[in-house]
Amino acid sequence: MSAPTPISSLVHSRTLVTAGVFLIFKYYFLFSSFAFLILLLVFGLLTSGFSSFLAFMEVDIKKVIALRTLSQMGFLIFTLGLGLPTLSFLHLLTHAIFKSCLFIQAGLFIHYSFSLQDGRGYSVVGLTTISNKVIFRICLIRICGVLFRRGFVRKDIILASLNFSSLFLLF
After folding, report:
1. What is the span of the domain harbouring residue 9?
2. Global pTM value
């Protein structure tokens, strides 16, 4: 779905992307059998890995952010497969906040570069403001999981809980 960047911010962080994951949250305890958890684990890992690979190969900045959102949704499904719905919901909320901020800042980059969406051309364009660059980097640091930041602690807790899960024996 192609839309202007502020609309993409709302679509990817609030409504369209998170609606399916929220439905799984809502009915999680209804379907929390062992086979369903394994299914969530497998689909979460496949979605996260495949969309991360596609985001690595993409050059359009809006598509990169959208594919990274899909990767995080796969990570959320993986967390639900571990049996941690509360931690997964916390990850969903904090991810949505910083992802919408990234989309808004990417929209400013696109606006200042005269509708250039190719990420390879932003090093040449010096038209963006310093505050835009600073806010964009802060959001990237928060969302990527840099050491001793909230994203790192949240993702580290999720991955550490894999060791203490009964599903660890499957891997």
Report:
1. 5-170
2. 0.77
In whole angstroms, give the CA distance from residue 138 to residue 46.
Answer: 29
User: For residues 158 and 91, is the Cβ–Cβ distance under 8 A?
Assistant: yes
- Which regions of the chain does DSSP assign to beta strands (E)? none
**DSSP letters of 24-68?**
HHHTTTTS--HHHHHHHHHHHHHHHHHHHHHHHH--BHHHHHHHH
| CB distance 109 to 129 below 8 Å | no
Count of domains observed in the chain: 1
Lowest mean pLDDT segment, chosen from 21-35, 71-85, 86-100, 149-163: 149-163
User: CA–CA separation, 85 vs 31, rounded Å?
Assistant: 12
* Pairwise CA distance, residues 32 & 27, whole Å: 9
